[in-house]
Amino acid sequence: MAGEEEYLNTDAPTAEAIEAGRRLFARTCRFTAGAERADALPAPGLPEVAFAGRSNVGKSSLINALVGHNALARVSRSPGRTQQINFFELDGRLLLVDLPGYGFAAVGAERKETWSALILLYLQGRPSLRRLCLLIDGRHGLKADDRRVMDELDRAAVSYQLVLTKADKTTDPALARQLAAVTAEAARHKAAHPLVHATSALNGRGLPELRCELASLSRPNPLR
Questions:
Q1: 222 assigned to some structural domain
Q2: What is the pTM of this model?
Q3: I need a surface site. Which of 1, 51, 145, 155 has the fewest CB within 10 A?
Q4: How far is 125 from 128, CA to CA, in rounded Å?
Q5: Is residue 21 domain-resident?
Q6: Which among 133, 48, 158, 58 has a CA at the least distance from the CA of 93?
Q7: β-strands 85-90, 94-98: how paired?
Q8: Mean pLDDT across the stretch 72-98?
Q9: 23 within a domain of the structure (yes/no)
């Protein structure tokens, strides 16, 4: 994307690292567990990368696109359809964790409070969690709910990275402005990773770089 480099103060990943990410995410990924209660969470083991964001921001779509599987994580046009914490094992090296969305959802207040408590318990007490990807709609940028979650993550010392979604649904100049604003916001938060990715689950924009970074958090390949 023209102009993106001026906002991102980082070296581009090598071709070898990009290929390593592609190979890992091309391997078998399968659903292993779903938890609606704390006592249903699987025991910590493999490194975990969790995906969070406002309802309908595209968490399930992004997970499906990363692994090249259209129906691995359930996708719906109705906000609030992910109603548990879902765990997906990638090649015995990494767990991808799909969290219920926050913000608007077609469920009652009591249910939302239950989700919030479960998510907070997971985030604060999960020793195998390597990073949280906090997804932000690339068309609209950060909302009040997103900033509130960022503040909570800072207080809990949970490492997180902002990822813009739906990059295909806006113009390059508008996306560049959102990317600049979100990157500047991330720099003001102590637990936020400095690099912000702009992605599209539809056309694959930004996915190779995100795969590369997440692959670096995985369990080493025992064959290497």
A1: no
A2: 0.86
A3: 155
A4: 9
A5: yes
A6: 48
A7: antiparallel
A8: 76
A9: yes
